[in-house]
Design brief:
Layout lengths: L9 E8 L5 E8 L10 E3 L3 E3 L4 E7 L14 E6 L8 E9 L1
Antiparallel strand pairs: 1-5, 1-7, 2-3, 2-4, 2-6
């Protein structure tokens, strides 16, 4: 299953850092791919969250990799760097914006 977001300009994800430490969070959308090396993505820059902080990350669908197709999205991912302790993040909303 894929999402067709070609009628939209942005995707917004509102996230809260529920942990006690500052965290760096990344969000991206991807087109279907056969292997990690060849995926086409529309990703965010890194966003730093203070403990308890809520932010909305906006992905510009026109700013993806060359060849990124907003009519054929199969993945939404939130990820962070490597950590010694578990992270606590809450995804409040994920929405497409015209």
């Amino acid at each position: 299953m894929t999402w067709d977001l070609s009628d939209y300009s942005y995707v917004e994800a509102t996230i809260t850092n529920l942990g006690n430490n500052q965290e760096r969070v990344f969000v991206y959308l991807a087109n279907p791919y056969k292997d990690y090396k060849n995926k086409l993505t529309c990703g965010s820059d890194r966003v730093d969250f203070a403990a308890g902080e809520t932010k909305t990350i906006r992905l510009d669908l026109s700013a993806g990799d060359l060849g990124f197709n907003s009519a054929n999205i199969d993945a939404f991912r939130v990820y962070t760097g490597m950590h010694k302790n578990p992270l606590k993040l809450k995804l409040h909303s994920l929405k497409a914006v015209k």
